[in-house]
Amino acid sequence: MPSRFTRTVRQGVAWFSRTGFFRRVGPTIMPPLERVTAKLTGSNRPLSGYLVPSLVLHTTGAKSGMQRDTELMYCPEPSARGQRMLVTGSNFARDQHPAWTANLMATPDAAVTIKGNRIPVHAALIDDDEREAVWAFIEDQWPGYRGYERASGRTLRIFRLEPVSG
């Protein structure tokens, strides 16, 4: 369970990230801002990682076969085998799924980088039977996050990333 301070920060970030302003400008400004910040700081930690749990997802392009890197917010999910990660294809509430979700569906073996550590993972799309419980868990961490699904007019793809042995 997040601390009171963490919940307060997340509520503010969650509110701002759901505004029409952020949904319009976020897709344009966030990726270059993440890259510039990484170069200036010499860090491979996303800028958003200073406010929210963030990772860089390394996938294989479904069409190109090339490596693709995407900075994403994630929701840590404890498990008996360590920590798993939940990532949601909200795509700033746009009406199409983000490309990285198609990449994971085509090639579920991927990797993430968290705080400079690269971890091989296997992705599993959350199925309908588990969907409501996973949304409840995500919204416990990020109140109101499901609003992206309502605003987008589509069912968001949620993936569980399970670390695998190297």
Folded structure, characterized:
There is one protein chain. By secondary structure, the chain is of the alpha+beta class. The chain has a single domain, classed as Electron Transport, Fmn-binding Protein, Chain A (Pnp Oxidase, Chain A). Helices cover 39% and strands 28% of the residues. It has five helices and seven strands. The chain has helices at 4-17, 20-41, 99-106, 128-141, 147-152; strands spanning 54-60, 67-73, 75-79, 82-88, 109-114, 117-125, 158-163. The protein has a seven-stranded antiparallel β-sheet with strand order 2-1-5-6-7-4-3, sandwiched between helices. The longest helix is centred in the N-terminal third of the chain and has 22 residues, at 20-41. It is globular.
Per-chain topology:
Layout: H1 4-17, H2 20-41, E1 54-60, E2 67-73, E3 75-79, E4 82-88, H3 99-106, E5 109-114, E6 117-125, H4 128-141, H5 147-152, E7 158-163
Antiparallel strand pairs: 1-2, 1-5, 3-4, 4-7, 5-6, 6-7
Q: How large a portion of the residues is in β-strands, by DSSP E?
A: 25-35%
Mean pLDDT: 84
* Structural class label: alpha+beta
Q: What's the CATH architecture name?
A: Roll
Number of helices: 5
Low-pLDDT windows of residues? none
In N-to-C order, the SSE pattern is HHEEEEHEEHHE
The CATH class is Mainly Beta
Give the overall shape, derived from the CA principal axes.
Answer: globular
Q: C-alpha Rg, in Å?
A: 15 Å
Number of strands: 7
Strand order of the largest sheet: 2-1-5-6-7-4-3
Helix share, percent = 25-40%
Note the gap between the termini.
29 Å
**CATH superfamily membership, which one?**
Electron Transport, Fmn-binding Protein, Chain A
* Domain module count: 1
CATH fold-level name? Pnp Oxidase, Chain A
Largest sheet: 7 strands, antiparallel
